[in-house]
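ARCHIVE CARD
Drawer: 12
Card no.: 0347
Subject: one protein chain, sequence and derived structure
Cross-reference: see card 0346
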Amino acid sequence: MHEVRGRPARWSEEALQSLNSRFRGRPPEELLAWAAAHVGGPVALTCSFGGAAGMVLLDLVARHKLPITVLFLDTALLFPETYTLAEAAARHYGITIAWHQADLSLAAQTLQHGPALYERDPDRCCAIRKVAPLAEALRPYDAWVSGIRREQTTQRTATELLEWSVKHALLKLSPLATWRERDVWAYISAHAVPYNPLLDQGYPSLGCAPCTRPTSAADPRGGRWSGFAKTECGLHV
């Protein structure tokens, strides 16, 4: 049993295996509804308002009126379209979105680490502006819902529907883990889900503006951190 932040793992490997078997092949809203009812504490969904999968999950949470809090990590470096979508989605769904920022402002980061840290040490920049704020944002919650999918990167190919996050000491759910890109867009089309317009402009994956470039749909993460051997910001590893 792992101990993190003084909270032991509440879910055994056997229990997680049983739950993964139970929900494998089932609609993601069933897993979301189960989490909201049975985790035993508050549940949060992180939505970047950049990726299409996150918008599918947001739509499912809102459509089924599930008591799941929506968290948004504002790095202060996102595309204008991302901020516009976050505000529009809150109005569209009639929900409150909890915005979280790094303790260190961009100005303070520049003073401490020099200008444009993302150009010199993107891992350090992500740690300051994404990883640390996420850890703080998730602290009150017992479960975290994420939009990651197995086909996105080699690091994600083993993603299960339910896993225990040692890093954050909570249950991590990836309801769309087995979905393909076509499944995501079929749902968006069928339910008129709002999404980031940059996804139609050669950006198959969106992060912070300085670190994201248009790229081929065949390599969706190829436009992230161009010039670096980096495909993950650190939130999911």
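Annotation on reverse: The mean pLDDT is 89. Residues 3-211 form a domain with the Rossmann fold fold (CATH 3.40.50.620).
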